[in-house]
């Protein structure tokens, strides 16, 4: 039997389905309908019970860099947001024993998988309704998260990574570590010498920007760190932030750059940036400190994702990697040549 990372997304879902019933029982939930809803590295199911209540069950990917301690910290911020604000977020569901995170064994896996259950959030994904008005609402949503994070007091045991390096998932001391392989040399290296030089140039620029942020005197705060168009839902009257799994200690400008990465190479980027900034500035001051800062941090996001693809053992990522790394090189060259 193949390990989970060698299966397709659908294959992982099929392997895990028999486990889900017992897992949901830990929360007192009996599924009448179960639907796999994502192509991400995690396995995510939409759960509907007999009373038509709906939930999202997230089972972390094998070898995930997000361990149970980090998942409990995610829940802690979500609980604080629910108690102290009206910001739209998925409410975590408590287990019958009072906990929130379940660790489960899966066939052919040598480590336990961690899972969590959340209330279903209504609406359509932002990428399906990508208007300037909705992007402005996305900017407002992020600003409100930053506003709350500025006064958030984490509980005992709160433990998340710090975004003080270009590759934070390579930092030791956490449940999972993502090895840094992007700059390896030799026959198995993901980048040839010419391409590697472009990535190294970009890395030097981003590392310098990170050093400046850490020396700026600005206080670190919790940032969502993944508020892209597939992690935001929109309704007529509301907007919701989803999937806080990647949250870290960081700076608002890093959070903004992570979001803008997903718009940066669209033809209408300047209009989207303007709309996002307008919404953000309706709540708090725009945190960019100098011209070109956002583009340099966007390169950081590109490098982080490139290493994720290069190191991945997932069969789909392996097939995708050569074309993806070529595209990243072209994007990095474009920003570097713009003399940001």
Per CATH, which architecture of the largest domain?
Alpha-Beta Complex
Supply Rg: 20 Å
Topology order in helix (H) and strand (E) letters: HEEEHEEEHHEEEEHHHH
Give me the count of strands. Answer: 10
Strand-pairing-aware structural class: alpha+beta
Strand numbers in spatial order across the main sheet: 1-2-3-5-4
CATH T-level topology of the largest domain:
Aminoglycoside 3'-phosphotransferase, Chain: A, domain 2
CATH superfamily of the largest domain: Aminoglycoside phosphotransferase (APH), C-terminal lobe
**Termini Cα gap:** 50 Å
Mean pLDDT: 90
The figure for the number of domains is: 2
SSE layout and pairing:
Layout: H1 9-25, E1 31-36, E2 43-49, E3 54-59, H2 68-84, E4 101-104, E5 113-119, E6 124-125, H3 132-149, H4 193-214, E7 221-223, E8 232-234, E9 239-241, E10 248-250, H5 252-261, H6 269-281, H7 293-311, H8 315-337
Antiparallel strand pairs: 1-2, 2-3, 3-5, 4-5, 6-8, 7-10, 8-9
Helix pairs in contact: 3-6, 4-7, 4-8, 5-7, 7-8
Please describe what this structure looks like.
- The protein contains eight helices and ten strands.
- It is an alpha+beta fold and 340 residues long.
- The chain folds into two domains: 4-120, Phosphorylase Kinase, domain 1 (2-Layer Sandwich), CATH 3.30.200; 125-337, Aminoglycoside 3'-phosphotransferase, Chain: A, domain 2, CATH 3.90.1200.10.
- A hairpin with a 6-residue loop joins strand 1 and strand 2 (43-49).
- Helix 4 crosses helix 7 (293-311), helix 4 (193-214) packs across helix 8 (315-337) and helix 7 (293-311) runs antiparallel to helix 8.
- The radius of gyration is 20 Å and the shape is globular.
């Amino acid at each position: 039997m193949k390990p989970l990372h060698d299966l397709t997304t659908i294959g992982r879902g099929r392997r895990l389905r028999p486990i889900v019933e017992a897992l949901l029982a830990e929360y007192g939930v009996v599924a009448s309908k179960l639907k796999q809803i994502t192509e991400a590295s995690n396995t995510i199911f939409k759960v509907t019970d007999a009373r038509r209540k709906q939930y999202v069950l997230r089972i972390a990917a094998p070898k995930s860099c997000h361990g149970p301690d980090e998942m409990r910290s995610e829940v802690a911020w979500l609980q604080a947001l629910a108690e102290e604000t009206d910001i739209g977020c998925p409410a975590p569901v408590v287990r019958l024993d009072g906990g929130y995170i379940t660790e489960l064994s899966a066939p052919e896996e040598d480590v336990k998988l961690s899972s969590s259950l959340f209330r279903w959030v209504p609406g359509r994904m932002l990428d399906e309704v990508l208007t300037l008005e909705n992007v402005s609402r996305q900017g407002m949503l992020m600003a409100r998260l930053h506003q709350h994070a500025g006064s958030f007091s984490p509980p005992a045991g709160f433990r998340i990574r710090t975004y003080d390096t270009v590759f934070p998932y390579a930092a030791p001391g956490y449940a999972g570590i993502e090895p840094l392989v992007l700059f390896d040399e030799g026959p198995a290296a993901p980048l040839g010498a010419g391409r590697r030089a472009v990535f190294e140039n970009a890395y030097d620029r981003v590392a310098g920007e990170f050093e400046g942020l850490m020396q700026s005197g600005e206080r670190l705060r919790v940032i969502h760190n993944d508020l892209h168009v597939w992690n935001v839902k929109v309704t007529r009257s509301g907007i919701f932030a989803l999937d806080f799994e990647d949250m870290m200690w960081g700076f608002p400008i890093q959070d903004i750059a992570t979001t803008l990465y997903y718009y940066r190479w669209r033809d209408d980027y300047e209009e989207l940036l303007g709309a996002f900034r307008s919404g953000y500035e309706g709540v708090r001051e725009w945190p960019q400190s100098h011209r070109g800062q956002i583009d340099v941090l966007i390169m950081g996001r590109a490098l982080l994702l490139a290493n994720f693809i290069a190191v991945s053992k997932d069969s789909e990522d392996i097939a995708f990697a050569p074309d993806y790394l070529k595209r990243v090189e072209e994007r990095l060259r474009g920003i570097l040549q713009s003399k940001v």
